[in-house]
Amino acid sequence: MDPQKEDDRSISKGGMQCSKLSFIFFFLFVTCFVPVNGFFLKSCRISKNAALCVTTFSKLKTVPQDIPPTVTGLDLSQNHILKIQPSDFPHLPDLNWLNFHQNQISQIDSFAFASLISLQKLTLNNNNLVKLVENVFGGLGNLTELRLNTNYIKKVSSTSFQSLTKLKVLDISYNKLQTITNLRLILQHLPQLQELAVKGNGFKSFQSKELTNHTLSLRALDFFSNPFRDFRLTEDIFPSLTRFTIGDPFSNKVMKWDVSNKTFLSGVSSLDISSLYMALDDKKALLEAVNASLTSLTLNRMKRMKYTLTTLINSSCSIPTMSSLQIRHNRLQFIYLSTFKLCVYVTTLDLAENYLETIPENVFAPMERLKVLTLSYNRFKKVPPAIGNMPNLSKLDLSANKITAVDCQEFSNQTKLIELNMHNNSIQTLKPCVFKDLVQLQILRLQYNAITDLDGAFKKPLPNLKHLYLNGNKLTSIKNEVFRGLRSLLNLSLHENQIKELYSDSFVGLRNLTEIQLMSNQITKQNLDTGAFNALVNLKRLDLAINHIKYTDSEALSQTPFFNLSHLEELSIATQHYREKSHLPCNFLKGLTNLLRFSARNTQIVYLDKDMFKYSPKLEKLDISSNDLGTLSPQLFSPIQNLKSLYISRTTLQSLDFLIDANLTNLQFLQARKNQYSVITEDVIQSLPSLGYVDFQGNSFMCDCDNAWFLNWTISSAQTQVFDAYNFVCNYPEDFKGTKLLDFNLTSCSVEIGFICFVSTTCMILCFMVMSFTYHFMRWQLYCAYYLFLAWLFDKKHQNKQAPHQYDAFISYNTHDEPWVIGELLPKLEGEQGWRLCLHHRDFEPGKPIVENITDAIYGSRKTICVVSHRYLKSEWCSREVQTASFRLFDEQKDVLILVFLEDIPTYLLSPYFRMRKLLKKQTYLSWPRAAEHPEVFWEKLRQALQTGDDLKEENACLNVLQTP
After folding, report:
1. Helix, strand or coil for residue 877?
2. Around Cβ 228, how many Cβ atoms within 10 Å?
């Protein structure tokens, strides 16, 4: 390749215009020294109202120091923080929620949280704490909830909890506490404690007499998974206790129970003795102690009992107040007919996860008050016949079994059933009569079965059904008014099926439906053209994501798919399966006058018509990310002035300048990640006065003075949070590639005004003095020199005018455009029109310097034709050719330039090329792409331009018929 035409990307913009720099210098002088009081953060994302700061998964090793003092919540979970000390929280007076979940904290200094005077909730779960030092929580007088779950704490200092006088909830489960002494050191300072969880520690004995000096207001006590050998309650230290949990699934020794007075636990209403390994007599004694108030009993994992579970169940059911019974994870496999004979007061029964395959038909007959029955995660192959003997059931859970079919009589007696859950079974078909008697049913869950055909199951009225879940099945079509009987239905879930056919009668009867989920199916645009959604006149949310909806052009549809959905507020067609380029018809949203949220994410759209949103003027949230749009028109946003959230990430945008004229004054949230722009201008940001949050992650920024305003705004803005700005990376110029944008030194963009004034004044005075002395002492010499110069200049111009031109035109082009020059331009101008052209590869003199060859070719030709393309603009040698031709234009006052654009280049892309942009303001030009339909006109205009004379007025008069910018 000839070096004249090599592409050369400029490393820096050394030739930036002085006037532009002057403005930047002044702005930086004014703003760089203003105290920063915004919420640009290195490691934290703040909610819109600055109430919550989230910095999870950031690999932080210390608490960040740039947290705004206005935050009320701080989430530092899942980082690598090792230590907490008082200096970590210099000034957070309003913070009331702090989360250190899952770090590596092994040390907390005394009074580490003392400055957090408003803190109410502190979470330190899943860390490496071994000891709580003196006054570790000193100063937290307003703390009400403290969680220390899953650490290694085995020692507590006497003053660790001294300041927590208002604490109500304490969870110190799964640590290494082993003695009541540790518990006493905790409880002695917590007069208002209501909930205490000490699960999974190492307590082997509980003696109430060791806590007799403390008044405890506990309402909930959880001792689960502690290896108790004995539990002795000889004093009434828990007068307010209502929830009590005790038991150890890992213990192999019987626990001794000793409650000296049955009234000590008389207030307990919820009792969980799962996995409690204790003698039957002691268990009966425990049940007698709570006999007066027990309402809920949990008997999970009772596999190691040496007596029957039936005995314990009937002992508990004899308590008149007991209404809820949970018996999970017991591997029952079979239930005896007498198991629940005394449970006449029970209203809620949970038998999940018990490996049940069958149960006696009349096993629940004594439970006339039973309303809620859970039989999930068992091994039933059909609906147990015992269900038919419970006419008062309101909720039935048969999920996660092996039921393959449902007969018509199995729910015939459930006229009061409100919720039926049969998800995650193996049901393949639904008979038309299966739900006919469930007249009170409101919620029906049939998701994740193998249903292929609804077979009229919902044609018969279910007048009160409001929520129907059919997702995760194998439905392929919806037709024949299949939901006709569901006139009260509000929510319909059909996602994750195989639906590929919709008809005009698919949803007839669902006039009250407000939400339908159809994502992850095989729906096409042909299905939308059937008018399937016309019957859903009250629909508010429609999700069609992950389907096969594809349009090949943006032409208006004769019949739009949503014209009857005037109440729709949310529509999603995001994340399609296909990867071919697509369009959206310009009237795709016609009829959606109340649409608030629209997502067309990752649909491979290449163009959006400017009238796309004129049918949805109330739109507030728009997501068009992950499309190949390249550019957006400001007119696209004119109809949606209420827009508050805009997602335009990964859309190959070259610039955000479209926002300047979009007039989005209400926009509050902007996500514009991973695009192709490198400069954020002041005009873009100033056009969004309500902006509170912006995300520019993953863009290739330019480290030069063009971004100086953006850098200062990022740091100093008190209104807008620039998410993750600390990690913005420069990609241009080459010297700064890979460096952080915020590390760019702005001093090179600013100049001390006082110094400028001093230098300017000094230079002016010196120049004035030199000129005065020169004029005074060398006046006549200057006169002579002036007239000699005029004579030489006149002679030089006269010689140029008389010298004949060797060529009619010199062709300036980039090597990549040579095929067009050789194949199109040369045959026309030399072959057909007879012009003598100068081309560098043919007519340059070998061995002569390139600059001299260029100069001789331009001055030795009547005209210079510049063949302009994107590569031409980036070429250093092409730039020199334009510069030389411009000097000739200035020197001879002749219009010797003809501009021919091979590609459509927007004006804003010419802004970095000052000389070309200046020429366009004065010169007319020819456009090859616009001459596609009439190429003969193009060649005629080019011939006329070459034929014009040297007079500038004559040239302009001839070229005024050409394309102008």
Report:
1. helix
2. 21
Q: What is the pLDDT of residues 238-260, one digit of tens each?
A: 889 999 999 998 888 889 988 88
Going from the C-alpha of 938 to that of each of 568, 861, 930, the distances in angstroms are 51, 22, 9
Query: Are 595 and 589 in contact, with CB atoms under 8 Å apart?
Result: yes
Q: What is the DSSP string of 213-279?
A: TS----SEEEEET---SEEEE-S---TT--EEEEE-TT--SPBEEEES-GGGGTT--EEE-TT--B-
pLDDT tens readout for residues 361-412? 999 999 999 999 999 999 999 999 999 888 899 999 999 999 999 998 899 8
For residue 929, cis peptide bond before it (omega within 30 degrees of 0): no
Task: For 623-661, give one letter per residue: b (16+ CB within 10 A) or e.
Answer: bbbbbebeebebebbbbbeebbbbbbbbbebebbbbbbe
Which residues, 6 or more positions from 310, have their beta carbon under 8 angstroms from its beta carbon?
A: 336, 338, 339
CA distances for 68 relative to 88, 451, 524, angstroms: 13, 54, 49
Average confidence score pLDDT of the chain: 84
What is the arithmetic mean of pLDDT over 633-638?
Answer: 94
Entry pTM = 0.73
Neighbours of 849 (CB within 10 A): 9
H or E segment to which residue 715 belongs:
helix 708-716
Backbone region of residue 906 per phi and psi (left: phi > 0; alpha: psi in -120 to 50; beta: other values): beta
CB of 923 closer than 8 Å to CB of 952: no
- Paired residues of 207 in beta bridges: 232
DSSP, residue by residue, 493-523: E--SS---EE-TTTTTT-TT--EEE--SS--
From CA 948, how far away is CA 954, in angstroms rounded?
7
Tell me the CB-side half-sphere exposure of residue 536, using CA atoms within 13 A. Answer: 29
8 and 871 Cβ atoms separated by less than 8 Å: no
What is the biggest distance separating any 2 CA atoms in the chain, rounded to whole angstroms? 133
Q: In the chain, count H helices and then E strands.
A: 18, 45
Q: Provide the token pair at 827.
A: 């045959």
Rounded to an integer, what distance in angstroms lies between the CA atom of residue 470 and that of residue 445? 7
Residue 241 to residue 460: CA distance in whole angstroms: 51
839 has pLDDT over 60: yes
List the structure tokens of 34.
């203003």
Rounded to whole angstroms, the Cα distance separating 351 from 328 reads: 5
Alpha-carbon distance of 301 to 327, in angstroms, equals 8
Tokens read off for 313:
């169940």
* Pair type for strands 83-84 and 107-108: parallel
Cα–Cα distance for residue pair 369/390, rounded to 1 Å? 9
Which fold, 808-959? Rossmann fold (3.40.50)
Domain boundaries, the chain: 754-796, 808-959
Rounded to whole angstroms, the Cα distance separating 813 from 810 reads 10
**Paired strand residues for 477:** 501
Residue type, 792: W
Q: By the 8 A CB rule, do 249 and 224 touch?
A: no
| Cα–Cα distance measured from residue 616 to residue 429, given in angstroms and rounded to the nearest whole number | 41
Which residues face 551 on adjacent strands? 583
Beta-strand ranges (E) seen in 538-606 are 541-543, 570-572, 597-599
Angle between helices 914-922 and 876-892 (to 10 degrees): 40
Is residue 260 classed exposed, middle or buried when 0-12, 13-18 and 19+ CB atoms within 10 A define those classes?
exposed
Task: Output the 3-class SS for 328-361.
Answer: CCCCCCCCCCCCCCCCCCCCEEECCCCCCCCCCC
Q: What is the pLDDT of residues 146-156, one digit of tens each?
A: 999 999 999 99
Three-state DSSP class for residue 407: coil
